[in-house]
Amino acid sequence: MDKPAAAEGRLHILLLDPRFRLSDQPAHTRSADIARRLDRAGHRVSVITTDAALAATSMERVSLDIMRAPSRPEIVARRFAFGLIFSIWSARDVDAVIAAACPAPALLLTMLFCLIRGIPFVMDEREIPARPQPAEAWFVHAGAWLGAKVRALASRKAAQVFVASEELKEALAERGCDATRMAVSPAGCDPAAWSGHDPAPGPWATRTVVTYAGPIENDLEPIINVAAALRASGDHSIGIVLVGDGPARGRIETFAIQQGVLNQNLWLLPPMQRHDLPELYAAASGIIARAKHTNADEGTGFYDALAAGKPLVMLDTGPLADLVIGRGAGIALPQDPAAAARELRESLADADGLRRAAAQAAALGAGRFMIDRIAGEIRGAIEARVAAEPRAVVMRRRMLAAKRALDVVISALALIALSPVLLIIAIAIIAKMGWPPVFSQERPGIQGRLFRIYKFRTMTNARDPEGALLPDEQRLTPLGKFLRRASLDELPELYNVLTGDMSLVGPRPLLPEYLAHYNAEQRRRHDLRPGMTGWSQVNGRNALTWEEKFALDVWYVDHVSLWLDAKILTKTAWIALLGHGVNAPGHATMPRFDEIMARREGAEDV
Length: 606
What we know:
The protein has helices at residues 30-40, 56-59, 76-87, 104-117, 138-157, 166-174, 221-232, 249-258, 277-282, 300-308, 319-327, 337-349, 351-366, 371-388, 391-417, 419-433, 472-475, 478-485, 493-499, 520-523, 546-559, 562-578, 593-605, and strands spanning 12-16, 44-50, 65-69, 96-100, 121-125, 160-163, 182-184, 208-213, 238-243, 266-269, 286-289, 312-314, 330-332, 438-444, 450-456, 503-505, 531-533. It has 606 residues and is an alpha/beta fold. The protein has three domains: 5-186 and 374-389, Glycogen Phosphorylase B (Rossmann fold), CATH 3.40.50.2000; 191-369, 3-Layer(aba) Sandwich (Rossmann fold), CATH 3.40.50; 399-605, no CATH class. The strands form four sheets. The chain has a seven-stranded parallel beta sheet with strand order 3-2-1-4-5-6-7, sandwiched between helices. It has a six-stranded parallel beta sheet with strand order 10-9-8-11-12-13, sandwiched between helices. The chain starts with 11 loop residues before the first strand and ends with a helix.
């Protein structure tokens, strides 16, 4: 497997967007803009989108790794989630995920993917899913309810939730999403892409034009009324151009015909590719925009106007409209058509006012709403989260949690299953060596914290005439030798495993007196719980030197895994049957480490 990009400070970021759009397509290109800037910052970006959103010819001009989840336009959301089931797992060495305007099933899959891979994800919410109509089937309502619950859960699991507007933030919070994790991140604009273009020719060329580009919906009726009021007043100097498509396009077109303005002082054009819009905007003296939007495409006119440095004509009220008016970057049209027509006429006739408004719009586009700054915030959130919790750290923490869970389950089952064996051994020890059958002793555990370990006795308490215990080889009984060779003396440690003082596998717990003699590297063996068996026990056991055992213990600390534990447990069972490595050469047991170190230190003092 390739080395993870994060190891070199370069992240591999996976961007999921069912409607990923480039500049040769209509509507917003926020995801593409962010992806390009992440790429420029030195990160690798992979994109998963749909055939419906991105043509193969478009991808040839993008320096991004783009995978496609096949879909048809009418069922993009549903099929995107289905295609994601297969395509997301092909992404290798991913460090973070951006889920942009993903449907609930895709969010659920994203959470699962990030959970398994141990990586963070951020949500980039551009719109709120529409509520089903009351007359729709029960399962449609159930699906919408479940989707809202999934989105709310994802908002609590995400490292950050970026939302397009304050209105969208409020709407998502009402549906249960975590408002504390949300940050308003507008679609943004790129002034460099909108400068230096010649005005587009058209029948409006001899007029002062205001332009709208975006979804054609019913709330554009006031614009038709304004056009009719201008025509009724005899003012033929102002033209209005509407560009876009939508479910209300036919109705708006019919209404414009009824008002007698279509192709007179109002033109309704089909959707245009975004790289053609700058020429259309260059011909305009003002841009019509919505102030309130819970759909990403609805806000494109506002941000494109800022990028183009054009005065704004706001259709409604809201925080963005207040900002525009407060900064002098445009006007807000009154509800009354005649008053709105008069306001528009006076604004467009004021050449100095237009220049000032254009300058203020350009300043907003180059500052507060600059896509470079917005993309930088998203990049910063991802980089900070990855730096705070690297994937290796997350996976190790998760693996250790799984290891602990297995310790509890296996030790509990083993204590129950082996209870007859434990009883027989205890009776045999009492008969041969007397009471008690089990001895306890303090040993250092994780981080050097002392705990009391329990083992079956293998030695008598025989003492010399002075009251000192006899050497190990004199106190070790035949029964004790058998228990040691078969490792049966360790079985009571299952209780220590159950209580959390020990693990099934880990560095063996040694005497507290050894702690003072460890060097910094050897002390790292206490970074994990001590084990009933360990890597050194299956690679020489007591036949090793202390230095060799400590080196193997530290290696295990650095390479611990469930697979390695399974390997060690299997080898332990085999070694216990063969009885290998029970004694150090020339010793009944293992010579004490502190005594060895004391002799060494004494030799150095001579």
